């Protein structure tokens, strides 16, 4: 189905239950993992009929699942979809609490090419895919290895971060040590990303993010973490065999500093997005958090730098000591090579693999996986918060947009009620940031949590998944901002600009002239040319100003020549306020000045719709100009034609009851003639003398 700029794929009548998305822009395909099905969709036209693979759980597994007390979860929910190579995708599903994985072959065109599950490749999905379709989980496939943060048992209590697959013969598991709960304890994994640390590929790491249950003495809390392992970690030789020997973790803090010294913490990590930079080693980390408190409900977005994250991992380790076993800073001797570094020529060419690590290094990291210092956001506080609202944030993607006055980051934030917030971050001159909510779109009519989001920079589309279906939303919806220059500028949307006729998509390389934006200040007045309206004394004139909102109240103000004070226009029988503007029946000399039309919405929000300068001339001045024949501002070289245009102008000024659009159409003059029109507002038409 399609509604406006939102296209929906809803799937079966009982719900789609989408749990994984794989967007492949290079090959022009979009895969959706759902309940018992994998769909192949057209990313350009989501509403087109998809191709699908039916992949249900085995019947005996479904029966066993129901006997164990489960019901709706007893199906195969596809939660893993990753490109393995150019022709194959690796997929895993929950299999009615008995996870399994397989390869899918995809070749040729989307419409009629090969799209099939290779049954001969079906294998156990344990430690690759969760048992429970609702359990938070993450995975990433790189260099033919699958890294996954998941549960290792039916109940979902034992959680671990693993590596599997890999090119033959290296296909054994590497995992975290579940015998020690201070490694990972009842974790809910959020995301995982391969990130280079140096110029040497041997130093590459997998950074992953999760939240977990943490114990400080007898105090139980939920904390958010960033952790990392080396990609070339193969486990220890005598200790930590087939377990990570480079695993380190640190706390991610997202809090609002309080005036009384008590911070408001958002401790439960919900989603992560890495915004690439020119330096591939240093993406910007955007994170969505929610509060743990049942009393205070809120969400926040915090932003971190990889430099700060690495600095924490290069800092002091934490150590448990004392009768209450609290974490304190470790002040003893640190073995060599530094625990957590990768075996590479960067640090010590004698150490080829992690099996070459000295026993004391392996032993140290086994008991000291936590860093003492925490990672704090770049600004020291969240860049965006939502508190005391009836929803929480669940997902985030970020787009970097080039506008007329600079570069901006636009956040798309999914919620647990099926809506999306579009927010732009604006840095002011004093380096403070302002977050402006550009739009709040209800994507799914049924309030349902948004489970996944993918952004296509190529197609300028956002794909949003939930249990109800999959939605395709355009990143730019400029038509929402009305048909006036002021409304387009006030929106402060870096995707949109006024092109002289409509509010349309801003393209930096466009040759279209007069593209008007003001994202930083949202001041439409700064985008207008000087507008001057000439009136003839004793004649009538009409200043048109029509608000887009029907609830808005219009007030007119005038700033007289030589005065800095703005006063409200006095209304009487001569000066009449109509629903289309201000009618002045007979112009007096005191009517000259700058007129400002201000709209006040029912929320008491006010904004300026129109600003123009009204100058007065007498009949004698006009007659003398007509007799002069040639003036710098009046081109009479065309004789009768120019005189006729003056008469048209006088007719306009003396007949306020015709629409100004008709005047604009009838008085539109060729370039180089005596006057032109500035059409910034759709309903405003002004004459300005050149």
TrEMBL record:
Cellular compartments annotated: Membrane; Secreted
Residue ranges of every copy of the Ig-like domain listed in the record: 508-613
Any Gene Ontology biological process: neural crest cell migration
Keyword terms of this UniProt record: Differentiation, Disulfide bond, Glycoprotein, Immunoglobulin domain, Membrane, Neurogenesis, Secreted, Signal
Pfam families on file: PSI, Sema
A GO cellular component annotation in the UniProt record: plasma membrane
Sema domain residues: 1-475
Entry annotated with the keyword Glycoprotein: yes
InterPro entries, A to Z: Ig-like_dom, Ig-like_dom_sf, Ig-like_fold, Ig_sub, Plexin_repeat, PSI, Semap_dom, Semap_dom_sf
GO molecular function list: chemorepellent activity; semaphorin receptor binding
Highest taxon in the source lineage: Eukaryota
Primary residence: membrane
Sequence similarity: Belongs to the semaphorin family.
Name of this chain's protein: Sema domain, immunoglobulin domain (Ig), short basic domain, secreted, (semaphorin) 3D
Gene that this sequence comes from: SEMA3D
